[in-house]
Amino acid sequence: MNIINTRKRIEEDLDVLKSMVYKMSGMAGESLDKAVWALSHRDEAAARAVIEEGDVIDDLEDKIDTGCMEFAARYQPLGEDLRVVVSLMHIAVDLERIGDYGENIAKTALTLSKVEPLKPLIDIPRMVSEITAMLRLCMSAIDSRNTADALKVFPMDDDVDDLDKQIMRELLLMMMEKPDRIERSFSLMNVSRTLERAGDHATNVAERIVYMYSGRSVKASEYRRKRNS
Q: What is 87-114 written as a DSSP string?
């Protein structure tokens, strides 16, 4: 009976840690989404709100880190339990970085809100949609313990990279046509590259999920589109 009760407490404590990770993932995705919305609509108030919410994401990472350390000290886990708690700590770090990227984009939105926009944003919001979909799939994979869902995240990052390259080409052409667009173009290039890095962090999360439940260490590159040599 004691073993059964201990197992129940372990599962309950892991569920609490997972719930915090789900919340953090949602907040990190919203940070990107709201920051790009502020950029698209030149909304200074919305951009400042994203920056202010960054501390909440940081605090949540600290709580997850502390909770995982306390879990390890309390139960001295082995096997899958150990993989899960260590992976959740790493996942929280990746999610915190994504949240930071939202803040960075929001700061760019504040700067660009004071100048005439180059063009309506189309591909940058599409990048955000793809990244938030990747994060939702990751959280679903944790909840369902389904490594197959985590593997689906990897090729999605190809779409993010394709959009990044498309944005870079378009902005380079715009700079070549009119040099007075250079500063604004570089700002948008930085936004695109920031989102590309956010996609990489989402794939890191997916890699961790596969390890959590299968014990296998996988690389996203093994499941992504083959590059021409």
A: HHHHHHHHHHHHHHHHHHHHHHHHHHTT
Between CA 85 and CA 73 the distance in angstroms is 11
Tabulate helix, strand, coil % of the chain (nearest 5).
85, 0, 15
Check pLDDT > 80 for residue 7.
yes
C-alpha span between 81 and 212 (Å, rounded) = 8
Which amino acid, one-letter code, is at 123?
A: D
Question: Residue type at 181?
Answer: R
| Rounded CA separation 33/44 (Å) | 15
How far apart are alpha carbons 104 and 94 in whole angstroms? 15
- Count CB atoms within 10 A of the CB of residue 139: 21
Q: What percent of the chain has pLDDT over 70?
A: 97
H helices, E strands: number in the chain? 6, 0
Note the pLDDT of residue 225.
Answer: 77
pTM of the model: 0.93
